[in-house]
Structures are given as C-alpha cells and as structure tokens.
Input
Amino acid sequence: MNNIGGESRFIGFLDECGDHSMEKIDKDFPLFVLALVVFERSVYAEKLIPAMSALKLRYWNHEGVNLHSREIRKQFGPFSFLHHPEKRQRFIADISQLMETMPFTLFVTGIKKQAHQEKYGSHAANPYELALTFTLERVLYFLWGEKEMQLPIVAEARGKQEDKSLELAFLRTMSAGTQFVKAEDFKTLTCPLVFRSKHDNIAGTQIADLCAYPCARHILERQKPNPAFQIVRKHFYAGTPFGGFKVFP
Output
C-alpha cells in the first residue's frame, strides 16, 4: 500500500504483546494485546522525536537504542545498567515522565485467548485479526470526531508471512466492514499500512510497545499495582460509541 506522504494531520503506530497463535496457549500469558498510538504529525516531529532522542542521550552515547519493553524489564543488552537501583529508578522516572506528558491517543485491544477458545471453539477468530477489527472500528470514530479522513499506520515488521497476513486482514476489514461498521464507512478513510524494521528505530512503534505490556499486565492481574498502566490509561481514546480500551471476550 502506498504512503500518502506528509499530508495527514495524524500518524499511527502499531505494536503487539503476546503470541496470537491459538494452537499453543501459554497458561502464564494467555493473552494477545494490540496497541495503536496516534500522534498529531506536528507533535510527533516537534516533540516526541526530540524528547525521545534527548532521553536516550542521557543514558547512551547515541540515540540508536530501541526502547523495548521486554529488554527493559529483563535488564539485558543496552539496558543491563538497570541492575543498578539508582540508575534504574532514574531511568524509569524519565520514561514515565515522557509517557505521561507526551500527547497521543491510545487504542488497546486485549484478546483473552483461552476464554476466546472456550467460548467459540473451532470458530474462534484469529486474535490478531479480531484485535485489528476492534481497533479499526474505534479509529474510524476517532477520525470522524476529528473531521479527518487520513491515518497512515506504521507497524513493526515481523517477517514476510506475518506481515502479509496482517496486511490482508487490514485490507479485508477496510474493504468489507465489520459487524458494527459498514464497508461504506471504512471507505471514507485513507489508511495506508507500512511495515518498518525494528532497526529503523521508529519512535512511534517504541511508544506503542511501551503501552502494550502494562495494559496486558492489567488485564491479567487487575488487582496488582501497575504504575505504568495508570500512566498510559490517561491516553485512551474516550469517544463514543466505543472507548479506546477493549478486552474480549
């Protein structure tokens, strides 16, 4: 799908947390989460990119490090310095401030795979496709509310087969509609989807990654303290008829 250049007011970034396979469900993490962050293009260019680069340069000698949730939690690779409590505290505070103060709109869909399988059996839809459907329904109403019809979306590349599968699911939803949104309504939108490598170090997909895991942990363990979720939840799309946080089933 072709990009539309720099014409759009908004730009979106997709990332995921968890495995979308229904064949083997991890009993400790039976969940798939899809996160889409939407920035105004001017905010992304003038605020996020400089702020993220400045944060990285406080801890490394270059801005080429990817802020990846799993590596941060595991404290390995470029994040091995987080084994030092004082440095870890300072780093987490800096990331928390960035996430809290940066203006963006967040859409998160969580598919509880075990419950999904138990409810629908052999008819259970692919969690990625299902999450994408719920997300695009909400994006439609967000864009309509903003009187905007364009949203280029960038997803982190996962491999040719996985990327093609996602692209087909995306095109299918946009062209055929869903149970709640008619195909004619989706056709009012221009939403080119592109895939970029993690090595491209795209700030937006890193923000989506940092949003996805806290939301997943909240879905799995609602009673446990989750400061990161309390930060990202402030960014959820709050429009109607759908809010920006969906858990299914």
